[in-house]
Amino acid sequence: MRIVIDENIPFLADACSEMGDVIVCSGREITNSRLKDADAVFVRSITRIDEKLLRDTAVRFVGTATIGTDHIDLAYLKKAGIAFASAPGSNARSVAEYVFTSIIHFSDYFKKPFSKLTIGIIGAGNVGIRVKQLSQVLGLQVLLNDPPLEKAGSDHTFYPLNTILENSDIITLHVPLTYNGPDPTFHLADESFFSSLKQGAMFINTSRGAVVDENALLRFRDKLGPLVLDVWEHEPLLNQRTIDAADVATPHIAGYSYDGKLNGAQMVYEAFCSYIRKDPAINILDTINREFHDFDITRIDDPLKFMTQTACPILSDDQELRKFNQQNSTGRSGYFDFLRKNYRRRLEFRHFRISGRNNSIDILRSAGFSG
Q1: If 91 and its partner were Cys, which of 241, 255, 298, 318 is the partner (CB 3.0–4.6 Å)?
Q2: Active site residue: 71, 93, 252, 350, which one?
Q3: Domain coordinates of the chain in residue numbers?
Q4: What CATH number does the domain located at 292-367 have?
């Protein structure tokens, strides 16, 4: 058996090595010719899986170690009889912690306590609900919008989009990228969206770049408060004007915690084992489950900012992406991929064990910090 694996999926090659010959390469190097004799391929979001890639190959199993599947032609896979697995929820905690860290970072901007603020969460899947939970830790009032889930009869309380836009101090997007159907999300955040926003609202996008019409975003930038962007409309070729407009700009790494990567790897590994009728031989997550870093926060002036930035250093990530404009035109797409490939080994909140006396310790523990 021949298995091709994106190099950004940690430990999966080791886990699959006893099943056959494993080829590890960059996601952009996963081509039709490379897959000619492959039986299975494992990717992340930068590899488009469709008929063009898989035509006349031996591939019978596709796994993506990601929550989203907008890079997968699911209809083609079904038609071709190719088995498929994704990793729903694998990095939900990672993205939610990124959003939580961003809100904490801009807390001084709002000039009022979190209990007096409202957050509008657009998309109430695995990530959106995690964001809701962390928002409630801060005391934020939460409004949810998710038309597909509302139609499906979800138990959550939902609000119309315009109601959320007009009443929220913070807007955060957590939807898949879809182009068709009754509720497409391509350019969901367009001129009408931004014109309806509450003046000075904070805007966060960690979903998919093309959910936002960047031209509309730039036209309405002066209406917005803090702008946090982790995803970009034309990745890996970013619009420098959009980077400059953002207060925090990061290279599509909100979901790139080490925990999230290992979760995704384990989920597709188990799915592949099930497909070939083999019991999983390892648990990839065992490599970090007992790793902790200890902090006494007694003498720290602002423990919320210090601990969230220690665990999820969005400002350092922002500084790295802002070097994008220093690259020549041919090197810019490569630089974006370089940042993602070489991203830090970021651990989620649970790996940071806090102690000491401080008014913020209960909030931090409720947010997931250990101790």
Answers
A1: 255
A2: 252
A3: 2-86, 92-249, 292-367
A4: 3.30.1370
Q: pLDDT tens digit string along 263-298?
A: 999 999 999 999 999 999 999 999 899 999 999 999
From the list 97, 233, 235, 348, the catalytic residue is 235
Q: Do 92-249 and 2-86 fall under one CATH topology? A: yes
Q: What is the mean pLDDT of residues 29-55?
A: 97
3-state secondary structure of 205: strand
Please report, for the chain, how many H helices and E strands are present, in that order. Answer: 15, 13
Beta bridge partners of 120: 143, 171
Check 71, 93, 130, 208 and give the catalytic one. 208
| Class of the domain covering 92-249 | alpha beta
Please name every residue paired with 62 in a beta bridge, in sequence order, or none if there are none. 41, 84
**187 catalytic per annotation:** no
| Two structure tokens written together for 88 | 């729903």
Among candidates 210, 114, 216, 217, which has minimal Cα distance to 170? Answer: 114
**208 part of the active site:** yes
Q: Which fold has domain 2-86?
A: Rossmann fold (3.40.50)
